[in-house]
Membrane protein
Amino acid sequence: MSEEAGNDALRTDPRTFAVRAIAMLGQLVLPIIVGAFAILDKGDLGDLLLYFVPLVLVAGGGNLLFAYLRWTRLTYTVGDTDIRVESGVLSRAARSVPYERIQDVSLEQKPLPRLFGLVEVRFETGAGGGDDLSLAYLRESEGERLRELVRSRREGPGASAAPTGEDELAQANTAHLLYAMSPRRVVTFGLFEFSLVVVAVAAGVAQQFDFLLPFEIWDWRGWRDISDWRAWGDQLSGPGAWLAGLGIHAQVLGALIAALALLLIGVASGVVRTVLREWGFRLERTDKGLRRRRGLLTRTDLVMPTHRIQALRVRTGMVRRLFGFHALKAVSLASDSGSANHDAVPFGRMNEIARVVSETGFALPDESSDWHRGAPAHRIDAFLLGLAAMLVLSGIALALGHWKLAIVPTILGGGAIAFDQFLTWHWTRHALDRDRLYTGRGWLAPSMTIAARHKLQSVELVQHPLARLRGYADVRFGLAGGNLRLRGLSVAEAERVRAAVLDSMAANDFSQIGEATPTGC
């Protein structure tokens, strides 16, 4: 429980000191092991007792003392207009964030604080960088109380007061489950989270430890020339000699085995990362907004107020779309910092996504939606510019005397560019209804943005010289947490979209956006 530190200043939970001390001691484990092995390798146990053990005790004691000082010197004050945090042992720092700048308040539990029943409270300001604020660590009940208190003071007298224990129980009973991920769904999601980064790291590790082998691991000639496998054991001599005698077949088989091994590493890493991040995923509709809880080791609890959601994004991947899986993400002011993750449905069917979308006040497009595409001139110009680049490559090949190679960029490259530009034009489209703007793009991994027209912050028409000559323009919208842009519209269509969105924005009082919202959003 928080303790008063003088006046209205509060300290974090006293157990914060224990959590930080254990974490700091954990950082000494590797140096201790390395140092102990280095001394014992010389066979002198006396040096270990005389020098190393006292050094470990001094370092550990110093970490404990510093952790205690950090805890005593960190205080926070919940004022009428802002929340203020003061910290620092040698150098003091004070930060103050007005409630009106706080977009979201989330609770996070890493494994160690979770054992003590503590949470880290994160205040998302949407400004990015160092402007976000956090308090580590508070009791779970204190974190919940502080989140509700900040919300009520941020939204003024009309917001509900911070809940008591009975109120919290009543809210929990009235929460409506919108979406949950079973363990099977989480593991299935992980199968689609293949990571090339992990594969690259595995390949790098193998490269670093190839000195353990009697040949270069990435040299296929070395694998081909191994004909005597008796060094690996007499039992392998027969199969080894047979494999080496296959020649080119052995090379192909070895390449397939290596590719399969890297694929399994990538898939396994994706499953592990997804299980750690998404385990126990639950999205509920409460009177405060959408409440999302997830995580196996690090547990996060995030509330997304629906009136602060400016847009929704529905996306899928090249492979997962074949199985009917999509993802839904909310876009709010807090998303602009990049620190807040607002995945509402990370891996679901469209009927599951539609249920969540309806709860936010938005709506998916229907058959009556009037879709428009960009100007064909825009895609034709993009094709001609790409073709010009291919012709330059062909010219270089001809200058070097490779006339056969010169055909490849022009024929194959030009055809690929034409195919891509046609499909991009076909699948990039937009539609307007009374309250919303819909934009869709992508033919391999399609995505769609649903934006509330009255919550967009600006509209801008952009034309470069070629666009002015050819009669098309881009429309850029001010949207917190990401970019929203319509490319290559005819000038008449661009002006129509801008006028419609400006009418919606002009009719909205942004100072009251949290109190009243137009129908449908």
Q: What stands out?
A: The two ends are 39 Å apart (CA to CA).
